[in-house]
């Protein structure tokens, strides 16, 4: 029931939306197609790669990310599992230990909690425990973060959970370029990589450069991307919160404030260098995430800044914008208020900028 | 019914299996709580007697009056679940095999005794789960394994590590946490690896889907190999074990699910933990075989059968009925939930090493002098390994941040107070 509802929600959430400059790009690609083509490329490139998960084959993927792949690659490479996350995550991990390159799809990361032992204890730690003897090249992927209208058990962000653990790499793509490049890089990586996609972005089309469709197009894991340059304040976000941040930056621009928006792309490794460089320029920082605040990605960024010389570059405290510290409610209005909205980001930015914001506003007038 | 090696044939098999089968079962009263596993309740059905042939009845090939090969019957009949035919009950044993199995079992016993002593000397830290009493399971399975076959087990793996090619000093040094250990001291008791051996695993039951995944890789690669996925009677109740059975069956994966039933999950006896203690039947649609896990030849025969079965038909469950002499771990004296008498009884009447030794001598495959020579050789090897494990040095501190990733992308790893560590890459891993 819940699963079919999720699919419905995803479909209803599909909409063409882009905060980038569409007009400049000839090509458009949805995040879904970006992921699909990434899987297709890597399946074709390396015989050891296979996709395993619930409804990935005959159903074409619960969110249609694997559409057409079963017909193309067959039962051996695209494997439907029963609804047993712990079991198939363990099987995928074992196959990786024995030399294959599994892509283990969770229908959503909410269900991966049933399998988190294999992600952490079996996949992330084996290389270290074996003193470098057995690496585990596996990708765990699927939609992460709050969806729409699916209530508490199906709406949460696991970025902080996985990023906490050494031995794992964790990426969280925002747009089509991210999704395609990061997934391909993850599949080629010799270590376990958690790819946190966003269900609400699957249907979104983004303009892409010509190089993005290249068979060997990769986005390096551990490197953030500056989505919009600015000089007044830095906004750091990942996944769908990048969209909110770009919209907020557009609002701030109306007030004469030039915000620099950083798309983290990777949660672990965290590209602190890019954040630091930006802060040295803007001297102000807010972090944005749709996950909960406590011990979250924003909290980690705050701590990194505090421990670095960059702290002395700050003209004001770093401020976090995060999901409200409650389980996700079902009701539409409550749900909308549970995540940081554009106006929240604008408010936080103005608060951090303080008097400077006033000057900027005055200057703009 | 043949009844020749009476010492072996009258042994009290682990009682609980038999209680259910006893014809005059009167144990339901609950009066005998403290002794409910006591021997007085065991009245074996006649089929448990006299299954062991002696040399006189066995087919024995002799060269210059010394036996080079013999045919013997396994100690106890296999029990089958959803199988029309089971493993061969008459098995051949050559002199070379006899020498090898005896040496291996004795080495494991000595290795574990040494580990127990090192623990008591506080040189081994943390976990230390001993395999003493269960040697025939590992040695029997290993005897049937081919080069393409794999094994993964739980946390009682010192013996398996040795069988899979790590020297006793590699095992003991890992236990003492020094650099000569097979995981350079970074893994410890539960995390040892070698080619085709995917380790000990400290999370009860987690190794079962992992082993199923190794089997998936065998089938995927088409290399003809299979995987033994070992777990205990405790892990047998983990949900993921059933998940693994289910998918292995659906996908016809070459995996043998081996439940090493030593009758106690830590201190919880099988009856207190499982609604069905016939673990070989718990795969539902998966066929199963019950094996006397104290009989190395029975385990070997069953494993040979199972290897062929999983490579031609599909997965199956194999229960090896065995016993551990030590407590669950070193902190467990192992006497609060079972009686000393029970342990003594098994040691005296079912010990896998003593019974095999006596069989081999009876068959003329081994002489008392040969046995003595092996014992001395093993003792020497383990003594040397122990000395090495005590004197070898620990890794330098920089190994703390060595080989965390196969391809590290972190610019710095964090030390205790700052990002001041440069990841060191010494190895890439077999799957890089």
UniProtKB/TrEMBL annotation, chain A:
Catalyses which reaction(s): N(6)-[(R)-lipoyl]-L-lysyl-[protein] + pyruvate + H(+) = N(6)-[(R)-S(8)-acetyldihydrolipoyl]-L-lysyl-[protein] + CO2
Query: InterPro entries in the record, alphabetically?
Result: PDHB_mito-type (IPR027110), THDP-binding (IPR029061), Transketo_C/PFOR_II (IPR009014), Transketolase-like_Pyr-bd (IPR005475), Transketolase_C (IPR033248)
Q: What Gene3D superfamilies does UniProt report for this protein, alphabetically?
A: 3.40.50.920, 3.40.50.970
What is a biological process (GO) this protein takes part in?
pyruvate decarboxylation to acetyl-CoA
Question: What GO cellular component term, any one, is given?
Answer: mitochondrion
Q: Which GO terms describe its molecular function?
A: metal ion binding; pyruvate dehydrogenase (acetyl-transferring) activity
Q: Matching SUPFAM superfamilies, A to Z?
A: Thiamin diphosphate-binding fold (THDP-binding), TK C-terminal domain-like
Its EC top class is oxidoreductase
Give any Pfam family that matches: Transket_pyr
Major subcellular site: mitochondrion
Keyword Protease attached? no
Q: Determine if Secreted is one of this entry's keywords.
A: no
What region holds the Transketolase-like pyrimidine-binding domain? 29-204
**NCBIfam families reported in the protein's UniProt record:** PRK09212.1, PRK11892.1
**Which PANTHER family does UniProt cross-reference here?**
DEHYDROGENASE RELATED, PYRUVATE DEHYDROGENASE E1 COMPONENT SUBUNIT BETA, MITOCHONDRIAL
Instruction: Quote the protein name from its UniProt record.
Output: Pyruvate dehydrogenase E1 component subunit beta
- Which organism does this record belong to? Drosophila kikkawai
Biological classification of the source: Eukaryota, Metazoa, Ecdysozoa, Arthropoda, Hexapoda
Q: What's the name of its gene?
A: Pdhb
UniProtKB/TrEMBL annotation, chain B:
Q: What is its EC number?
A: 1.2.4.1
Describe the reaction catalysed, as an equation.
N(6)-[(R)-lipoyl]-L-lysyl-[protein] + pyruvate + H(+) = N(6)-[(R)-S(8)-acetyldihydrolipoyl]-L-lysyl-[protein] + CO2
Q: Name one GO molecular function term.
A: pyruvate dehydrogenase (acetyl-transferring) activity
A Pfam family this chain is assigned to:
E1_dh
Which cofactor(s) does the record list?
A: thiamine diphosphate
Question: What are the entry keywords?
Answer: Oxidoreductase, Pyruvate, Thiamine pyrophosphate, Transit peptide
Record-level GO BP terms: pyruvate decarboxylation to acetyl-CoA
Residue intervals of the Dehydrogenase E1 component domain: 104-395
Q: Which domain of life is it from?
A: Eukaryota
The record's annotation in InterPro entries points to: DH_E1 (IPR001017), PDH_E1_Alpha_Subunit (IPR050642), Pyrv_DH_E1_asu_subgrp-y (IPR017597), THDP-binding (IPR029061)
Entry keyword annotation includes Transit peptide? yes
Q: Does Oxidoreductase appear among the keywords? A: yes
What is this protein's function? Answer: The pyruvate dehydrogenase complex catalyzes the overall conversion of pyruvate to acetyl-CoA and CO(2).
- Which NCBIfam families does the record associate with it? PDH_E1_alph_y
What name goes with this protein? Pyruvate dehydrogenase E1 component subunit alpha
| Organism this protein belongs to | Drosophila kikkawai
